[in-house]
């Protein structure tokens, strides 16, 4: 194995200018002096030191990065605007036995956030009410109608989690009808703070905590720490003592990972320690979901993000949005199994719906690019396309074509107004583009952030919106070109890909947003023993003089990547190493991201 070295003069690794997925490859160029200074922190390993250097870790931070602890990284709850105020309100409500309802977003971050609160309240002998909006009927976040319903059904206080910070009309209605609301959120805000008893959000304009990278589950974890601290100051506790909030680290980790929160600061500690807790299977709901998912033990970021996450999201996408929150909060084994089986079935339904829409969206994208190869954005739309999966499909289009992509659906019980979801490539702010289209009256409404956005429009506005987006995105030629780069961390020979290497690389984990998993390149190997597995995955063996390596290319069948990996072809490969165990035998597999003819 050779580690990352100086980039070739032409800045192309293996002279790959256009791979099977349309990208060019470059080799990371780490600062040699920094690598030498980092080496002692990783036992002298040149590879690990380079990987740290490439991720921007300096020697002073290496220890905290490699062994993150809550003791060193946990923020002072009082540093958050309104945190102490929110703790006073909620602890008083617990002691006065008021009827408190948590209003949660329908994704994993919302579900884990609501479950942390539900379990905290249960430790005080109280059951927390739950409300999760329906994606199709109510859309994202609180509405005036939802708050009126909660008031009419007896809620004294509502705690919104992973939503609420921008729900101005809903919070104004709550104020009008006398419904008390505490907002706990993490989304970006603009303008003045809406009316609420307390608004805890590290991304509110006047917050100085410096914790804007937290997911909602992380903010809620800090909030329950504030509740415990306040209870200690008052000298009060439930009969069995103050709730053990450390028992909720599994939920904090899951919300952080699935919401793609950057893994630095306390987020690394949440995930590192939360994965240890997840592996113990103490949460009945997560244990049940792991069982129906075929996971013996939840112990990796992959398990949490790609196995559990999609199933927990499935209810909010194509079914009952309440199921995930109920599952994560329950201590009843029978209920956990029943709810987990429902989510597993809904996820299978979601995959079928997604696959059908994706096939149509790919055809539309290919036709659009045939007509205009230089267009800088893809817009695909269809009647009956389910709003619960259009965001996923937009992400798939973006990954396949390396262009900002927007997918839109309407009709067939979904209402006359079309809903769209966009995903972008680095450097092209799709949220700003959509917001600009809304300001100019091209669409009804829309906005978002750099990498994702949402919109509403009349189906009749579709052609004009497509034309407007193509014209608007023409300015980002350089940014789109940069998005075609696949950065390689190091070069690897098949024979060097051992379980021991995977274990060493894992020492600089956890990996996720802001801390990317290393990408390895393998030069000039022959494809053999290739076969299709599942619906559209391609499994094969890569061989050269050094040995063999098992490989899999996800969703490659029928795509250019799959065509490049036919038996007998000689190719360069790029991908991530994964440990695998089968019948007691430890193996290594390369999850192939790209290939190029050798």
List the helices and strands and how they pair.
Blueprint: E1 24-27, H1 32-38, H2 46-54, H3 59-66, H4 70-73, H5 83-95, E2 100-104, H6 108-123, E3 129-131, H7 144-152, E4 157-161, H8 168-177, E5 180-184, E6 198-200, H9 216-234, H10 249-258, H11 266-280, H12 284-292, H13 301-318, H14 323-329, H15 333-371, E7 378-383, H16 390-401, E8 405-410, E9 418-423, H17 430-439, E10 445-448, E11 452-457, H18 462-473, H19 477-482, E12 485-488, E13 490-491, H20 499-506, E14 520-533, E15 537-544, E16 547-553, H21 560-564, E17 570-582, E18 585-597
Parallel strand pairs: 1-12, 2-3, 2-4, 4-5, 5-6, 7-8, 13-14, 16-18
Antiparallel strand pairs: 8-9, 9-11, 10-11, 14-15, 14-17, 15-16, 17-18
Helix pairs in contact: 1-2, 5-9, 6-9, 6-10, 6-14, 7-8, 9-10, 10-11, 12-15, 13-15, 14-15, 15-16
From the structure above, extract its key features.
598 residues, alpha/beta, five-stranded parallel beta sheet, five-stranded mixed beta sheet, globular, disordered N terminus
């Amino acid at each position: 194995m050779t580690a990352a070295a100086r980039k070739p003069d032409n800045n192309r690794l293996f002279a790959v200018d256009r791979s099977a997925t349309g990208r060019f490859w470059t080799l990371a160029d780490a600062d040699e002096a920094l690598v030498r200074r980092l080496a002692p922190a990783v036992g002298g390993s040149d590879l690990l030191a380079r990987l740290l250097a490439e991720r921007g870790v300096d020697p002073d931070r290496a220890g905290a990065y490699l062994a993150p602890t809550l003791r060193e990284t946990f923020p002072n709850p009082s540093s958050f605007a309104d945190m102490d105020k929110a703790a006073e309100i909620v602890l008083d409500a617990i002691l006065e036995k008021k009827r408190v309802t948590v209003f949660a977003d329908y994704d994993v971050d919302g579900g884990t956030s609501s479950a942390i609160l539900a379990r905290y309240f249960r430790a005080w002998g109280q059951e927390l009410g739950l409300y999760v909006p329906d994606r199709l009927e109510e859309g994202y976040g609180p509405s005036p109608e939802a708050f009126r319903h909660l008031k009419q059904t007896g809620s004294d206080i509502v705690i919104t989690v992973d939503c609420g910070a921008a729900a101005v009309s809903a919070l104004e209605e709550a104020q009008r009808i006398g419904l008390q609301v505490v907002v706990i959120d993490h989304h970006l805000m603009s303008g003045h703070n809406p009316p609420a008893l307390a608004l805890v959000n590290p991304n509110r304009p006047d917050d100085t905590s410096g914790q804007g990278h937290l997911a909602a589950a992380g903010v809620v974890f800090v909030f329950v720490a504030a509740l415990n601290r306040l209870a200690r100051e008052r000298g009060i506790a439930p009969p069995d003592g103050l709730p053990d909030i450390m028992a909720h680290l599994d939920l904090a980790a899951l919300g952080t990972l699935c919401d793609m929160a950057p893994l630095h600061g306390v987020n690394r500690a949440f995930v590192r320690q939360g994965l240890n807790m997840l592996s113990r299977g103490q949460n009945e709901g997560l244990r049940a979901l792991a069982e129906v998912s075929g996971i013996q033990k939840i112990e990796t970021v992959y398990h949490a993000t790609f196995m559990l996450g999609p199933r927990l999201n499935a209810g909010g996408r194509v079914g009952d949005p309440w199921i995930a929150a109920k599952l994560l909060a329950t201590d009843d084994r029978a209920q956990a199994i029943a709810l987990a089986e429902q989510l597993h079935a809904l996820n299978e339904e979601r995959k079928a719906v997604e696959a059908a829409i994706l096939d149509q969206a790919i055809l539309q994208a290919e036709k659009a690019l045939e007509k205009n190869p230089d267009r800088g954005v893809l817009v695909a739309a269809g009647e009956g396309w389910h709003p619960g999966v259009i965001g996923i499909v937009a992400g798939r289009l973006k990954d396949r074509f390396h262009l900002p992509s927007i997918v839109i659906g309407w009709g067939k019980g979904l209402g006359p107004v079309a809903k769209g979801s966009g995903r972008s490539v680095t450097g092209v702010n799709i949220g700003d583009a959509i917001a600009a289209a809304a300001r100019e009256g091209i669409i009804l409404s829309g906005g978002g952030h750099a990498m994702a956005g949402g919109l509403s429009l009349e189906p009749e506005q579709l052609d004009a919106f497509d034309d407007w987006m193509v014209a608007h995105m023409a300015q980002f030629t350089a940014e789109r070109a940069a998005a075609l780069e696949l950065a390689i961390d190091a070069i690897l020979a098949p024979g060097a890909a051992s379980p021991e290497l995977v274990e060493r690389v894992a020492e600089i984990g956890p990996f996720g947003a802001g801390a990317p998993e290393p990408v390895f390149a393998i030069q000039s190997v022959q494809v053999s023993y290739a076969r299709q597995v599942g619906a559209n995955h391609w499994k094969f063996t890569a061989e050269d003089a050094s040995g063999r390596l098992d490989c899999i290319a996800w969703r490659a069948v029928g795509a250019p990547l799959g065509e490049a990996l036919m038996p007998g072809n000689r190719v360069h490969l790029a991908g991530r190493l994964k440990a695998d165990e089968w019948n007691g035998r430890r193996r290594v597999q390369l999850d192939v991201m790209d290939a190029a003819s050798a």
